[in-house]
User: What shape does this take?
Amino acid sequence: MKYRRLGRTGLKVSEISLGSWLTYGKTVEDDTAVRTIRRAYELGINSFDSANVYERGEGERVMAEALRVFPRESYVITTKAFWPMGDGPNDRGLSRKHVFEQLHASLKRMDLDYVDIFYCHRYDPETPVDETLRTIDDLVRQGKVLYVGVSQWTAAQIEEAVRIADRYLLDRIVVNQPVYNLLNRYIEPEIIPVCEKHGIGQIVFSPLAQGVLTGKYRGGRIPEGTRGANPEINQWVKELIDSGVIEKVDALQDLAGEAGISLVELALAWVLRQPNVASALVGASRPDQIEANVKAVEVELSQDMLEKIEKILA
Assistant: This one.
């Protein structure tokens, strides 16, 4: 495994991170989830991602339980808040009340004294940014959160947060968690330059486009048991197939084969070619899947290969 600094911080995270969305606490049996998480740790992964909303805390619980056998200082574990966790008017968003209560609920579920990274899971237009940042700053000062992050914020929203943090001497955002993969490069024009300017790193999710970049949907087929067959994301995969993207994915898979690597390795290595990306966050429902993902850290794409990839995508 290889490790990178997270933005301008001293924190080092593994180039591959493991997440729990749509897997742990839901579609994957707990014992299989535990074996997968522990195998990831054995392979050198030290970055583990969850959120309160993942199966209403079950994703957090399973992940933390699996990691409990390892020294706490040896891994980085995260959680988030924003999405509804109840039916009440204050059971969502980034208000002081919701952030404060959800962080403590997450710590209780995971039986932890602190989380390494706490993310604002989305931008909340109904709560002043200074209210949210001051609340998280209080939690940092209490030792319950070590680093502050956001997920899927725009460049302008990130700039706003940095400006407010500096004005009130609050703990700064150091990490952004956006979608980023061969098929979705929206962070390149604005978000990456803004983050580089402010010392903010990226831990990107969906680097394999929910499994589309594994090659399992070759020819537009959706095999049983894949994420594409999951009702929650089935329509999204069908739209990709209908758009003609699968033809590009098939061409990328052929290119990877010519280079003697898998499409998974090519896709993850392509994401990691970006210096501002500290880690690629993957999901895995079995130990062998995480073993396949980890191989990507040994792949370095040549300039010729990168140009061929660009030609296919264009």
